[in-house]
Amino acid sequence: MLDELQKNLGFDENAMESSRMTLYRFGNTSSSSIWYELAYAEAKGRVKKGDRVWQIAFGSGFKCSSVVWLALRTVDYDEMNLWTDEIDEFPVDVDCDDGPLPIFFERSK
Could you list the residue ranges forming a coiled coil in this record (predicted)? Predict the structure, then answer.
């Protein structure tokens, strides 16, 4: 789904990074995934005061929604963020052409 979205909207890898890394680290968490993605962008220092962030979410069936947020402030990197503990280890290569993903996933640090 992410590959098709990227292709059809003409996004580069950087625009898709937070979605791919959220899926890699937390799996499909349904509607809460968009907040993990926003937290990823904040932890990477990519959301600054005055920036606009476009979030797109897809649900089951034919559900889709989007919103544009305006950053009212730049997030302090020392603030609590669920990515802070290992943000420097991301992004990782999630190329799945090597075969099926393992059934057992180790919990994040």
Answer: none
Residue 3 Cα distances to 25, 44, 69, 72, angstroms:
18, 22, 24, 31
pTM (whole model) above 0.85 = no
Q: What would the pLDDT profile of 36-75 be if each residue is shown by its tens digit? A: 999 999 999 999 999 999 998 887 777 888 999 999 999 8
- Enumerate residues 6+ apart whose C-beta is below 8 A from 104: none
Beta bridge partners of 70: 52
| 78, two tokens | 């020392």
* Alpha carbon 4 to chain centroid, angstroms: 16
Which are the contacts of 90, defined by CB distance < 8 A and separation ≥ 6? 21, 25, 40, 44, 83
